[in-house]
Amino acid sequence: MPEITTKPRVQVKPQTERPKLYKVILINDDFTPREFVVTVLKGEFKLSEDQAHRIMITAHRRGVCVVAVFTKDVAETKATRATDAGKAKGYPLLFTTEPEE
Ligand code: TYC
What does UniProt give as the signal peptide span (predicted)? Predict the structure, then answer.
């Protein structure tokens, strides 16, 4: 019987190829109505009513809250769209992004 040699088919990728993730952060303010914040969170970040409400309340109480993490492009696009939704209504609602450690 001939010997069969097999090569492992998995390749080890260097860790540096993992894309860096960015947090989208919700900033509290004194003017944007709570329900509007919840509506924007549900629409832009596909959160349930309950998840959106918890994030809004956390930002309201602590000043800021991490909404979710994405690749850089997606995080920046979502933060801009969500901020613009507030701007369109005349609210100072603000979402920022920050790289994960
Ligand atoms: N603080 C706002 C109010 O009392 C509600 C609010 C919560 C606004 C979270 C922004 O990121 C925010 N109407």
Answer: none
Question: Ligand 1 centroid to 64 CA: how many Å?
Answer: 10
Among 25, 37, 40, the mutation site with the greatest number of ligand 1 atoms within 8 A of its Cβ is 37
User: Does 60 contact ligand 1 (Cβ within 6 A)?
Assistant: yes
SS3 assignment, position 99: strand
Nearest-CA residue for atom 1 of ligand 1: 30
* Cβ neighbours for 51, distance < 8 A, ≥ 6 positions apart: 41
Q: Indicate whether 9 belongs to any domain.
A: no
ipTM exceeds 0.95, yes or no:
yes
Confidence of residue 48 (pLDDT cuts 50, 70, 90): very high
Q: What residues have CB less than 8 Å from 44, skipping those under 6 apart?
A: 78, 81, 82, 85
